[in-house]
Design goal:
Largest sheet: 6 strands, antiparallel
Order of helices and strands: HEEEEEEEEEEEE
Strand content: 25-35%
Distance between the termini: 61 Å
Oligomer: single chain
Number of strands: 12
Structural class: mainly beta
Helix content: 10-25%
Length: about 160
């Protein structure tokens, strides 16, 4: 039993110092700003006075490369309006293909290193894919009804 404990400790020590991505440089991430004013790729949609989605569940999801970092604005692609307020909840979904809501494919709630959320402000948030895999994502943000508002957006 003691040998198993020593072996486990040795494996854990190697895992903590070994790089997660091989070869070095394979996971150099890219910064992408999504749904900023004038973004032609924006599929964002203000669903209601308190909810925004990055795109339809049945549409094409965002490609999210290894170590990628997104700055996502809560802008509606059709109207240019921006939803802002205090965030109550940000939910990420992840799939292995661009249209995971199709027959033969699937998706799941995003968790762990696949979706690291940071620096939420009233109308945007950052999210990082801290893995070495390319995935496809969809986000749904819900704001506090007491603080939520919709503005014409203008240039940010």
């Amino acid at each position: 039993m003691r040998r198993l404990g020593v072996a486990s400790a040795a494996i854990a020590a190697v895992a903590m110092v070994a790089p997660a991505c091989f070869p070095q440089g394979q996971c150099d991430g890219v910064f992408t700003e999504y749904c900023a004013a004038g973004d032609p790729n924006c599929q964002g949609h203000i669903v209601s006075a308190t909810q925004w989605e990055s795109g339809p569940i049945s549409g094409k999801w965002l490609s999210f490369g290894p170590e990628g970092l997104y700055l996502i604005h809560l802008r509606d692609a059709q109207t240019g309006q921006v939803l802002s307020g205090t965030t109550l909840q940000t939910i990420g979904y992840v799939g292995a293909v661009e249209t995971p809501d199709t027959i033969g494919n699937n998706y799941a709630p995003c968790a762990g290193n696949l979706c690291e959320f940071t620096d939420n402000d009233s109308s945007s948030f950052y999210v990082r894919n801290d893995t070495c895999s390319t995935e496809f994502f969809r986000f749904v943000v819900t704001l506090d009804p007491a603080t939520a508002s919709i503005s014409d957006g203008g240039a940010e």
